[in-house]
Write a structure and sequence with these properties.
Layout: E1 2-5, H1 11-20, E2 27-30, H2 38-44, E3 48-51, H3 62-82, E4 86-91, H4 114-129, E5 133-138, E6 141-142, H5 151-159, E7 164-167, E8 170-172, E9 175-176, H6 177-192, E10 199-203, E11 209-210, H7 211-228, E12 238-241, E13 249-250, H8 256-262, H9 269-286
Parallel strand pairs: 1-2, 1-3, 3-4, 4-5, 5-10, 6-9, 7-12, 8-13
Antiparallel strand pairs: 8-11
Helix pairs in contact: 1-6, 2-3, 3-4, 5-7, 7-9
GO cellular component, one term: cytosol
Protein name: dTDP-4-dehydrorhamnose reductase
Keywords: NADP, Oxidoreductase
């Protein structure tokens, strides 16, 4: 199976590259651009086109969010012309107002923000115009390297002694980049074998947690591991923010459909985080750690 991956420098793109590199049944062509045409798809002979998510759209400039939607629609047009399936990954922030319970796959986000509504319109076009599509909504991603990997920047700030601010009233499910990459490959392999299960799916880590609590876990693990190496650590302090008056904002994705359809289990984010921190410590101990990776 030949995959055409856009925006290769994104953390999920790098996760897919790592995962594909361990398999003989995949050929992955990664390009830096977030826009392609039909000729690009034909030249690569791609069986599937994959677009990584635009991270934190609710916190980004409207012009950047609009540009992402336009880029995805250009890719959509190329996929329609060539009859190529499209996988579009979407950040959980599209559920602008969250939900009291679990957010199901059949619940289409209905944000108030104009730029976010533009992205929703792009999703509506994909559903209406390209039957063979996967819209995969993800929890906040964390990974070892790449743009929007979260952990490298967080660790760098903590080690620099900077204060890290995080919301204590936003509940979410941190999601491992590597777990998403493996899940996407498994889903696409089943589709290629005739599953025919196109549509929207949710994929996130287990155990809902506040942003502040997640950052606190990272800080504690960082200090514990560095002290284990005999290093004196003065990690930056944390500050809890209250962003919502009254009830906390919950973005907890219901991932039952991806389990029932493809047998994909949610990965516990604590285990994935511990694995990545162990890898980072091993690199640091060997002197090979880089500021932009863990």
């Amino acid at each position: 199976m030949k995959l055409l991956l856009l925006d290769a420098g994104h953390c999920l793109g790098l996760g897919l590259i790592r995962a594909a590199g361990t398999r003989a049944d995949l050929e992955l062509n990664a390009v830096e651009s977030d826009r392609i045409g039909a000729d690009d798809i034909r030249a690569s002979q791609a069986d599937v086109v994959i677009v990584p998510p635009f991270a934190r759209p609710a916190d980004s400039a409207p012009a950047e969010v609009m540009a992402h939607a336009e880029a995805v629609e250009q890719v959509l047009a190329a996929c329609i012309e060539t009859g190529t399936p499209l996988v579009w990954c979407v950040a959980d922030q599209m559920f602008e107002q969250g939900g009291e319970g679990l957010l199901d796959e059949d619940e289409v986000p209905s944000p108030i923000d104009t730029a976010l509504r533009r992205v929703i319109a792009t999703g509506d076009r994909i559903r209406a115009e390209l039957p063979n599509h996967l819209i995969v909504r993800l929890g906040p991603l964390f990974g070892p390297e790449g743009r929007d990997a979260w952990l490298p920047t967080l660790i760098e700030r903590l080690l620099a002694g900077e204060e890290v601010r995080a919301a204590e009233d936003v509940i979410l499910c941190p999601t491992s980049v590597d777990a998403v990459a493996m899940a996407l490959i498994g889903m696409l392999q089943q589709q290629r074998c005739g599953a025919g299960a196109w549509g929207a799916y949710h994929l996130a880590g287990t155990e809902p947690i506040s942003t502040y609590a997640f950052v606190s876990v990272v800080r504690t693990q960082l200090i514990t591991r560095l002290e284990g190496l005999g290093e004196t650590v003065a990690a930056g302090p944390l500050k809890a923010l209250t962003l919502n008056a009254g009830t906390p904002l919950r973005r907890v994705l219901n991932c039952r459909r991806v389990l029932d359809t493809f047998g994909v289990h949610q990965k516990p984010w604590r285990l994935e985080l511990s694995r990545l921190m162990d890898d980072w410590i091993a690199q640091r101990a060997s002197g090979s750690s880089r500021p932009d990776s863990i």
